[in-house]
Amino acid sequence: DFVNGAQIVVDQFLVSGLSKWAQTSRLTLLLPHGYEGNGPEHSSARLERFLQLAAQENIRIANPSTSAQYFHLLRRQALDPNARPLIVMTPKGLLRLREAAGQLEQLSDGRFELVLDDDVDHAQVRTLVFSSGKVYYDIAGHAERANRPDLAIARIEQLYPFPLEAAASLVASYPALEEVVWAQEEPQNMGAWRAIRHRLEEATAGRVPLRYVGRPWRASPSEGYPTAHLQEQERIVRDVLAQA
Fold first, then answer.
1. Which residues pair with 131 in a beta bridge?
2. Contact present, 129 and 240 (Cβ < 8 Å)
């Protein structure tokens, strides 16, 4: 939760060692990151800081949304011949969420998927929502989700290096698309939005407008009171699912 206490080590050695000394590693940081109403210091691993420090493929940053994805991510980290540090956002809530559990065949087969598509009829979809991590389940599991058969929710599992080709291919697979939405729990000046917005615009290729949904710009990562947190989470999900 308090990785900012290690910021000097992260800045001087972890993210710039390859450029400065041609030295890198497979060091993997598991950082709790999910807005669950426990206060600002227990919500944010400062994802935006790692994305700001990411360049020249110096690190990898992922936000896996299932146990199978997490398994294959760690397996890839161990086997990839190009060693790089790995930053993993690990929301505590997903540890006990049934929907995030993987099946045995998902562990024995397959691989880490950079982007996960929705299981919907692509021909009907007018709104494509991109999200990452825990917030996907808040949106997909909301009662109003059933009222939007024209909406699909995709997950970007790796945030850096950004999977531009996979995201663009997914957008292109929706022929009737009218809008792309980026949904996040973090304030607009935090989280992934500012670092990947231009990538999302590239993925849409100007075909449809791109809209942001999340918390507004703030000085603190999240609310200090559980009731205020729940109200804000509900607002974000309803904004995503609202009819255009």
1. 155
2. yes
Phi, psi of 88 (to 5 degrees): -120, 125
Report CA-CA distances (Å) from 30 to 23, 66, 78, 158: 21, 15, 15, 14
- Would you say 68 and 94 are in contact if contact means Cβ atoms under 8 Å apart? no
217, two tokens: 């710009």
What pLDDT does 244 receive? 63
Please identify every stretch of the chain with a pLDDT value under 70, giving residue numbers as ranges: 1, 244
- The Cα–Cα gap between 38 and 35 comes to 8
Instruction: Please give the pLDDT value at position 224.
Output: 87
How far apart (Å, rounded) are the C-alpha atoms in residues 236 and 185? 8
Whole-angstrom CA distances from 198 to 116, 164, 188, 205 are: 20, 10, 14, 10
Which residues contact residue 87 at a Cβ distance below 8 angstroms, ignoring those fewer than 6 apart?
Answer: 28, 29, 31, 50, 59, 60, 61, 62
The DSSP bridge pattern shows strands 179-187 and 127-131 to be parallel
What pLDDT does residue 235 have?
Answer: 97
pTM here? Answer: 0.96
pLDDT one-digit tens code per residue, 52-107: 999 999 999 999 999 999 999 999 999 999 999 999 999 988 988 999 998 899 99
CA dist., res. 53 & res. 49, Å (int): 6
Q: Residue 154 is encoded by which pair of tokens?
A: 């995709």
User: Is 3:10 a contact under the CB 8 Å cutoff?
Assistant: yes
Q: Report residue 172 as tokens.
A: 């292109």
Rounded to 10 degrees, what is the CA torsion of 183, 189, 190, 192? 50
Q: How far apart are CA 65 and CA 116, in angstroms?
A: 9
